[in-house]
């Protein structure tokens, strides 16, 4: 288990997500709600990928999915998940063609009720025992080399290298939909 990830969640979401403590959360599970520092918690969703059964976002062919939340007032976009750079596989196992990654046009997400404004909830799972599996390969300066050759602080690798990730949205009517379910290891 990766206790650092469970406690703090993905590092790239810091300042954008309020960590939620769930009574029945699994011991390797982190949960958060997207909320800007000023308390705004309603967002449009933009994504690259294909929809399965009208609601679940999946990869388009072999091109990784991409999901952003857009502030409903300011229009500022926040990256929630990029399957090409977040999670165990993207950080430690797989590389992707740069030309495919640059060509991922975003589309607005509408739920099955035609709603386009949502509260956004995130779940990350941290089953990988990073210290046991990779601790010996950490450089003296505290960095670890990713599959891309980039060096990243090992604490960030543990936080962003989750092995599963999910996004659930709730529309203004209270209807919840899981839009991302990714196994990443």
Give the SSE map.
Elements: H1 3-8, E1 17-20, E2 29-34, E3 43-48, E4 50-52, E5 56-58, E6 66-71, E7 77-82, H2 88-92, H3 98-102, E8 107-108, E9 118-125, H4 130-134, E10 143-145, E11 151-153, H5 154-160, E12 164-171, E13 176-183
Antiparallel strand pairs: 1-2, 2-9, 3-6, 3-8, 4-5, 6-7, 9-12, 10-11, 12-13
Indicate the radius of gyration in whole angstroms: 16 Å
What proportion of the residues is helical, as a percent range? 10-25%
Which spans of ≥5 residues are poorly predicted at pLDDT below 50?
A: none
Largest sheet: number of strands, sense, barrel closure:
5 strands, antiparallel
Number of contiguous helices: 5
**In terms of structural class, how would the helical and strand content be classed?**
alpha+beta
Q: What is the tally of beta strands? A: 13
Per the principal axes of the C-alpha atoms, what is the gross shape?
globular
Mean pLDDT: 95
DSSP strand (E) fraction? 35-45%
Strand order of the largest sheet: 1-2-9-12-13
Distance between the termini: 14 Å
Order of helices and strands: HEEEEEEEHHEEHEEHEE
């Amino acid at each position: 288990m990766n206790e650092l990830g469970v406690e703090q969640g993905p590092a790239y979401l810091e300042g954008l997500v309020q960590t939620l403590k769930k009574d029945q959360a699994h011991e390797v599970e982190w949960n958060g709600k997207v909320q800007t520092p000023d308390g705004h918690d309603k967002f449009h969703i933009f994504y690259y990928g294909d929809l399965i059964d009208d609601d679940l976002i999946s990869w388009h062919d072999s091109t990784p999915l991409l999901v952003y939340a857009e502030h409903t007032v300011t229009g500022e976009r926040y990256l929630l998940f990029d399957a090409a750079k977040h999670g165990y596989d993207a950080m430690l196992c797989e590389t992707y063609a740069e030309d495919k990654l640059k060509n991922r046009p975003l589309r607005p997400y509408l739920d099955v009720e035609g709603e386009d404004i949502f509260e956004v909830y995130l779940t990350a799972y941290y089953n990988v025992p990073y210290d046991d599996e990779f601790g010996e390969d950490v450089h003296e300066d505290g960095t670890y080399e990713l599959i891309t050759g980039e060096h990243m602080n090992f604490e960030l690798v543990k936080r962003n290298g989750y092995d599963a990730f999910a996004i659930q949205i709730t529309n203004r009517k209270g209807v919840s939909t899981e839009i991302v379910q990714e196994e990443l290891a």
